[in-house]
Amino acid sequence: MRKRLCFFFALFGFAKLWSQQSDVKRSDYWRQHNIIAFNKMVSNPTYTFIGNPQTEIALWGRLQWTGVTNAPKNFLLTYSGKFGSNSGAGIGVFQSNNGLFVDTGLLVNYAYGIQLSQNMYLSFGANLAGLKSGIDSNKIVSPEEDLVLAAIEDDFGLLLMPGLQLQWGNFEVGVLSENLISYSFTHSHTDTDLANKIYRAHIGYKQQISDNNWGSPSSLYAQLYTKSIPDIDLRYGANFMYQLDKFGYVQVGYNSYYGMSGGLGVKVTDNILLGFTIETSLDVTQKAFGNTYEMQAVIALGKSNNKDKPISFKTGPQPVKFKKKNTATKSKASKEEIARSDKQERVKFISAEERDSLMREGELEYVDILTLDSLAFTRDSKEEDIEKLFPISNTNPRYKVVEKVAGVEYGFYLIANVFSQEYYFKTFMKLLKNRGLQPKWFFNKENEYYYVYLEKYHKLSDAERNRRSRFGDRYFDDTWILWVRKN
């Protein structure tokens, strides 16, 4: 047991980085098997791209075997998020204390995803870690100098941890090497022996749950994983998590070496979450070491970076993922916009030359309502006239035209949102109804998207008037107008 407790666990698989001047062999790796909600880039570097819609600061701490003096402890603080439509990145600092040994260092992450089909992504990522490892002299209690410990010098090293993950609908399959390339600056040595490498693989499944009694979007996540550690053993386990977006999560897990675990995460505010996990061994001997505790603290920063591209009916609309917005913060600004719109509506006809110029630039926002009435668009309007107002280049994202949608009547539709998944569509409809609105919808079979609209109009001027007035001061989020030209 003493030999087992002296294992030196360092950041994310610093296996086989040991002192060349002593016979102290240290097997180094992270015990990140319970991390399935936040700080997931230590489980697979691609997670900063996959399922990471917002930028966040996350703190993770693990206090292992609390009944043993100088037992392993891990601390990790990260800043990560999705940047752009195809990539994610993160940076973190860490410390790992294991017996007399201590590691401190910096972790840098980058991930990139490629869309193979509508429901399939292949993601590549890597964590690059730099650390200083050595002896914590404050923990040495001896009347005489220990020559073996005195011979161990601080080691400075780099570690590259690549990984990839395939996401197909609700399923995900990921693999990584926790120490594929490791280099010691102290000893000018690179470890390339494949027998010394740590490998981890997992299969995951996430199911959105459309109906529950909590009034919050929810999901169920299940994961099976295995991990190969040189000179030790092959470990395996499973994790299950039920998450309520408004409130937090509960999780349970099993690891073939560490035993059973259970955790709870609670949202203190919309942007702050605190989590706690307890783990206990099923082995009688190891159970005497005491329980293991993990803590998480997460702060979500700003809005989601998982923004969708502008909708274009030449190439098909991009899915708009549902996210509740705070309408109260927009109220003041919206009323100011309404005031400007009212003033705009009172403006008499502008000159034909000025009107045509605005239309060529897609600036219908600045054309007054009376002028729109004079345009008199109908289903028989000439193509060249339509393109002035609804330009092919889509320079004005507030106005789109489509020739025909099966089962949908002719008219101008004030669109509130577009969804590719039925769960988010139903959730959004419930939200609008709870606000006292009566939203309507249709399904476009050609692109398989759900369109949620506030009202249908026969005249463009009526649709534009309600868009500018925020639907009569009843809906303050963004809207746009879709013209279904034929029925």
Question: Nutshell version of this structure?
Answer:
16% of the residues lie in helices and 42% in strands. It has 487 residues and is of the alpha+beta class.
Main sheet attributes: strand count, strand direction, barrel closure: 14 strands, antiparallel, barrel
The count of DSSP E runs of length 2 or more, i.e. the number of strands, is 21
Amount of beta strand: 35-45%
Instruction: Write down the Rg.
Output: 29 Å
Q: How many structural domains in the coordinates?
A: 2
Chain-averaged pLDDT? 75
Helix content: 10-25%
Structural class: alpha+beta
What is the 3D shape? elongated
Separation of the first and last Cα atoms: 77 Å
CATH architecture identity of the largest domain? Beta Barrel
- Uncertain spans, ≥5 residues at pLDDT below 50? 1-27, 303-351
CATH homologous superfamily title of the largest domain: monomeric porin ompg
